[in-house]
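task queued by scheduler; priority normal; single chain, no ligands, no partner chains; default sampling; output format set to structure tokens
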Amino acid sequence: MKKTILTSASILALSMAAPAFAQSTSTVTQDGTNSDAVIMQNGSNSSNIEQNGFDNSAKITQNGSGNKVEGLTAGSAASQTGVDVPGTRVVNTVLLAPPSINSDAGSSNVLVVDQSGSNNTVRANQVGKEIADIEQTGSDSIATIDQNGTSINPARAQVIQRGTGDVTITQTDANQALAIQEATALGAESTITQVSAGNNQNRGRSDQRNGASVSTIFQSGASHQADVQQDGSSLSEITQFANSNGATVSQRGDGNESFVTQTSGANSVGSGSDSDIRDDEPDSNAGVLQIGNGNTSEISQGDNISSPRRINQRADVTQTGDDNESTIIQNGNFANAVVEQTGDDNTSTIDSQTYSGGTAGSFADAIVRQIGDDNESTISQTAAPSFASVRQEGDDNGSTIAQSAGSASATVSQTGDDNRSAIVQTAEATAVVTQTGVDTYGIAPPNNNSIINQSGAGASANVMQTGELNRSTVLQTAGAEVDVDQTGVFNESNITQNADGAFAKVEQNGVPASGGPGVGQGDNLSNITQSGASDAFVTQTADSTNGFPSNVSNIWQNGDDSIGTVVQDGDNNLSNLTQASNTTAFIEQIGDANTSTVTQNAAGAATGFDAANREGTAVFVSQNGSGGQSTITQNSADNEAVLIQGLASTGDVSTITQQGGTGNLAVVSQNGDSLSMVLQDGSDNNAFVTQTGLGNNSDVTQLGNGNAASVTQGM
């Protein structure tokens, strides 16, 4: 805590002052040191005070309307003994707790003005160690204070207006400015300008209560702290140029707007402000707090890439109401932004927390929470490492995250209807998306939509969706992993992986047990495309849906040494799996009227199937239910096909085609009223068919060398 310069000495000086009285116009001129002037006026008054020297004091009390005070207290800086004062300009701004300006010991120049009525004006120009205490009661008041001090003897200005009015405070060097406007009507304005040299520190605070107010704070020099409190339809603008800036804004009312710009290092908006530049910590935990309708908050914090100084920037925004917008732009190697919006039509954009330099522990954090309807959130981070978390609850939410740093992570949680999430990551990163929709079965546009694009090796994506008409799209262009879990009806998962070593897992559950009008259980779709040596696992659970496919799984694997596994539980499921050479397919279908199609295109030399070493080509299909259909096509190489259609099932159809290769093997097991067709075109092919029950048909065709066929029926 810095030592407060305000003490009781000035009160003693004022109590000893000789009074001077004037009815309408008062002019006081004093030359020398230790001069005191006390003026009391009733009516429409005008007072002019000129004090040349130092250690001077002036106190003016005016009662009436149309009052005016114009004064020059203290002479030039040269006439002061070792005094060089900084300047500050304050317009409707509250930064710190109201200082006891009248009790400041050792002050060279003290001006105290008390005006009541309307159309009052105070204009003061102070040079030296200045104290200005202005209190105006009434409407259309004007207070203008210009102070020039020094870093040793800083300037202090306090203006209190009870009514409408304008406050302008301009200070040079280490300054403190406080403007309080208690307006009972519209139209209060406050402007604070503080300029310092060297390491001098500025503090500006504007407190505006009631009415439509405007607050502007401009600070330039060393470290700054700005605090704005507004109650009404207000506008607040804070601009800071220096290192170690801090700003706090609180707005309550309709149509509020807040703009904060901080340029240089170690900036903070809200609870992260630099505590060593303030006498007291602010009570607010939010950089900008807006409660009302139509609020807008924009925070921009400086880029210091060319400087060796580390940048540590923080920004907190809380908005409660309708039509709120928050935009935060931070350029630096340390950045942290938290935006929380509650209401309708909120928009939050955290654009570019940039600069990947610095130590490995450098961070760029962005957390956005939105609760309401039609919310949108956009986050762009190009620093390393990064973390982004978006939580949205409500209807029509949209979230977009872009990260280009290694070890980055993005987490999105959405609850409601028509949620949208898009994540783009260009390095090794992690993406987690959780979307929960409402099971209304209105069959509207997609309930939830998630898009993840990852281009870095070692990336991972996890998508969890619950509801109806959910859609998940994942694109990975390097060796990466993806896990998609969907629960509901009419869900769709699309996965594309374009590198070796990729892994894809999809689990789709059709619930509840019964759907809405004309809607059954399930109707989920999974599409997986892999162009390298990769693995794919698909599990789908659902029941039949009015004779249409309950679940559909499509897997395309174009790389060698890949494995595709599909498990479907329910009726009317469809599985399509296409693989390149030396691959393996496992298909299991539980239920009636399921269809499985497997195509393996082996272009390489025959190597033989080795499960332990993942060499060769093989297919394993198991269908447990009646009316199943299985089609297996193997083109060349060491192919193997094994088909088992349940012992208790009937009416199954199996087609196996092996051609253009050597050492092929086909094994078929079926129950009654089933059909099996095997075609082997090549050398060293074997076919074994077992059919139990009655009404079975088996057709085995072998073209080539060393083929053998064994068919057993009716056991």
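post-processing summary
- The first helix runs from residue 9 to 15.
- The chain has a mean pLDDT of 74.
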